[in-house]
Amino acid sequence: MAARKKLTIKLLREEAKTFAVKESKHNEPSLYGVTDGKAVGTYLEHKFREYLRNKYIFKEGSSAKGIDFPVLKVDMKVTSIKQPQSSCPYKSARQKIYGLGYSLLVFVYDKTDNQSKRTGRLKIKHTIYIDKSSTADYQTTTGIINILKNKGNIDDLKAFFVDRRLPIEEIQAQTLAEEVFSNPPKIGYLTISNALQWRLQYNRVIQEAGKVSGVHRVL
Q1: What is the value of pTM for the model shown?
Q2: How far apart are CA 216 and CA 219, in angstroms?
């Protein structure tokens, strides 16, 4: 058996493509009749990690410990094409403006069942890699950029934070507005909804993958 290589982001993306093509042809008895998205996600995440484990050396994370590939600063997400979204830990309101702090590898699947064989199949419709620089909220970042283009000031930014219902206290809003004024954000391509955890929605990244900087279509 060949010695395992160290996993890199380039290799991760290449292997995600190979894995997605292979998995899309696989009939899985344990998935037959399964409608729980979390169970499907857990199945695919575990299978991809096992696939990588056989070929590469890498430090593993988990939802309990944080992101899936902590050294590479990449988290893996699995979601259905019917409602492409997932949750992620909330750290601070800054994440909506400056990004999550790590990149995302997103598998978007369409699940079908074969009644006669009693198997389920996950057709991987999209595999997308989102650089951490592009993981902020689209409406928030474009709104800030427009305010600054129109000679907006710190008060305008604070009012915008209120309009966007950014989960932030007044003193923090002042500090953040000053930071944004002196260090404008890049455009993010996620839709991030406020909740106890962030709710990430992926329709825009599916549409924009391969067309904009920082959002790569792996497959």
Answers
A1: 0.95
A2: 9
Alpha-carbon distance of 67 to 52, in angstroms, equals 16
Q: Are 125 and 109 in contact (CB under 8 A)?
A: yes
pLDDT at res. 1: 56
Sign for the pseudo-dihedral over CA of 205, 93, 194, 13: positive
Domains of the chain: 5-92+100-137+193-217 (3.40.210), 139-182 (no CATH)
Is residue 16 within 8 Å of residue 127, measured between CB atoms?
Answer: yes
Which segments within 72-169 are labelled E, that is strand? 74-80, 85-88, 103-114, 119-130
Which is nearest to 166 in space by CA: 98, 65, 74? 98
Residues 6+ apart with CB under 8 A from 120: 27, 28, 29, 30, 31, 32, 33, 34, 111, 112, 113, 114
Helix (H) or strand (E) holding 9: helix 9-23
> What value does the mean pLDDT take over residues 87-114?
96
Strand-pair partners of 189? none
What is residue 63's predicted lDDT score, i.e. its pLDDT?
A: 61
